[in-house]
User: Which sequence fits this backbone?
């Protein structure tokens, strides 16, 4: 059984190491040895732990090699990975990938090619590192119905929010530290702005609901506007702020969104700290199932790849039909984002004078938004200004947007603070 | 594809319902229909939702039916379930069971028979209800090494501990309420004393470490001695008390134990509340993976059974070799319980007089136990007595046992309170 690897970076190296270290174990599982024939790298002269004979800088040497029946893609990025995967599938090769961008943006197309060619594309490693998320959705949930997904799938933002909360430090400061420690990229925008989370939610939701969710259909907010004040108020109120990937499937409509969210300490997601990832699946019959673990890192990722490789190899060796892949089957109907129905936390600076709260409460009331609690603290921080925090009961996004527009026109408003959705 | 079910109780009924409701889905997955031919019940005249034609009170009608290639056992209890399963395997039938007692006590024997006969026995439903624990250990961990298991696998005790903590109520009172609500059995001893947890840990550990762990080899303490005072002190100190199933595999030795444990709020297991179950697997390459969900209930259990049924049916239909089952392969070496190395919480009532703390500290010191903190509160509750709470650094169980023996002989000891191990 011969395979090729596209990509000789950290993950490719970890996969190489693991396959060699676990040789005997793999032989036991498959009944025959698993051999890596070639690894595609950009720079042949760079020093690495993979012997020179196994390296190539020509993708065609792997994609069009008749002896290779499975290709692992760990290059990352949309192109040329997408093109290589496409060619490999057209050559009737099974593909295993860790590439969230390619799957989120082209999963639909690639699955169709795979089906036509009688092969398969597997991507456990594209979401949640070493946590068997896709496997659980695919197999354990095959005869159940996933109704909701609640997930923390970006280690960088979760690390930043955790540090802000634990050490009461500012966003900018913690971000700089995260960059120094390698938990955030030099250009952290994909993580911070929620794009990485959006890609992953598109993959998970497409799979869970047997449909196609395009990343651009997902309402997305990042954590860049979360201030330490919000974190502190959340803490005081018994909540944590997490960047959540949320999707729900009811009445034929899919609600799908990524944004910072206040969740109560009683939620099992509230104790997911640092770079850890977690996904809560709410299923019709199984109820809530939560999976938690290391969402990144070369070895956890290599393990996820290896799980997929073993399963695909098993399929290749024994010509077993594969029945579990339900993604991208049906069209989806996305719920408009202004129909989101949830609780809200808003924070704003107002003039410190009588009747201010009444004016704001009036606007909320006129928009049928009912207040669940209000905090106004004595403060000397900004002269003549008072900081107001309001928590609402459940209401529609549309009503909330309208109320905020009106509040922003009030002469008593000194400075708009923030809006954070509250979920249980 | 015809199957038989041994047991027509709540789980059997839920499985019947699910297989009928998900008919089309199952057909898609298997490529042919899944048919329940017969259900074994004790009382044929009892009213149920399964048509009379499908019922029998003679197990042989299922076990020896040549048309039936897979038998699901959901009777519960050791006998006659164990005997029926054994006969079914000898008849070369695949077996799927939810029976933790049978697997914990006879898993080794039954696996041997299954291997000899070229069939298999699956038992996802025996631990953790609808959480895919066994599947994750079996497949996702196949080429990784599980080094530690930390689990909450008994809903009854977790419900009681959660209620005691949240509502500051006594053990006895909460237990009675749990019995009324159906969360505890009329005879709750199997749960309360940790026996149910012990069975489940035996199954998980046998599977994770590819060996045979017998329930009687597991050091076990229940929650019957946990008082509200302990819960309160734990809370004050930033801990929760949970009945944990713990096992570790290092240097060829397996440490395996069940007891109430103080865990810090930062542990992801600390937020597992009520009847929920969770298992934390610490693996060599994947790192920590935690699975959480509903640990019981007819429908979650039926879903776990159905996962196993589909997998086994797939194997039967396509004659695929099965490679993943590594349990019961190697002999085990169990670490003696007095070599446990952990932190301890002790609580005791002493005479309220000078020099008392010094006497206790002296005994601890002589046994090489170092104190990490001490709480002694002013109290008028018991005249002339003071309550002392001591937390230690890590030490050996043997040293701790010896120190406690000596403390119990001190004339200044008024009343022994409790000992609870602290784990991170």
Assistant:
């Amino acid at each position: 059984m011969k395979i090729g690897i596209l990509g000789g970076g950290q993950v490719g190296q970890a996969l190489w190491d693991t396959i060699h270290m676990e040789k005997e174990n793999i032989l036991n599982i498959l009944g025959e040895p698993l051999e890596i024939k070639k690894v595609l790298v950009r720079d042949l002269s760079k020093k690495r732990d993979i012997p020179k004979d196994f390296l190539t800088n020509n993708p065609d040497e792997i994609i069009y090699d008749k002896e290779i029946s499975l290709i692992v893609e760990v290059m990352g990025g949309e192109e040329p990975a997408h093109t290589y995967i496409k060619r490999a599938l057209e050559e009737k090769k099974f593909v295993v990938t860790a590439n969230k961008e390619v799957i989120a943006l082209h999963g639909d197309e690639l699955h169709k090619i795979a089906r036509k060619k009688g092969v398969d594309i597997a991507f456990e490693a594209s979401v949640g590192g070493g946590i068997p998320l896709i496997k659980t959705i695919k197999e354990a949930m095959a005869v159940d119905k996933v109704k909701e997904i609640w997930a923390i799938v970006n280690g960088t933002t979760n690390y930043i929010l955790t540090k802000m909360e634990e050490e009461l430090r500012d966003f900018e400061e913690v971000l700089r530290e995260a960059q120094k420690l390698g938990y955030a990229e030099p250009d952290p925008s994909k993580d911070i702005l929620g794009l990485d989370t959006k890609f992953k939610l598109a993959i998970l939701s497409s799979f869970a609901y047997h449909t196609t969710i395009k990343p651009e259909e997902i309402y997305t907010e990042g954590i860049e506007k979360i201030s330490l004040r919000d974190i502190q108020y959340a803490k005081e109120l018994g909540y944590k702020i997490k960047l959540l990937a949320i999707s729900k499937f009811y009445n034929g409509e899919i609600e799908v969104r990524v944004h910072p969210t206040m969740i109560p300490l009683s939620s099992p997601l509230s104790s997911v700290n640092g770079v850890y990832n977690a996904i809560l699946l709410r299923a019709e019959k199984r109820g809530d199932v939560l999976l938690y673990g290391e969402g990144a890192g070369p070895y956890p990722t290599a393990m996820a790849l290896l799980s997929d490789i073993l399963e695909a190899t098993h399929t290749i060796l024994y010509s077993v039909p594969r029945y579990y892949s339900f993604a991208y089957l049906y069209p989806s109907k996305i719920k408009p984002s202004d129909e989101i129905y949830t609780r809200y936390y808003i924070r704003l600076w107002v003039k410190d004078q009588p009747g201010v709260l009444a004016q704001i409460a009036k606007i909320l009331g006129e928009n049928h938004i009912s207040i669940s609690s209000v905090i106004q603290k004595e403060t000397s921080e900004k002269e003549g200004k008072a900081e107001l925090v309001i928590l609402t009961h459940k209401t529609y996004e549309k009503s909330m947007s309208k109320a905020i527009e009106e509040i922003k026109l009030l002469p008593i408003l000194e400075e708009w603070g923030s809006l954070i959705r509250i979920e249980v």
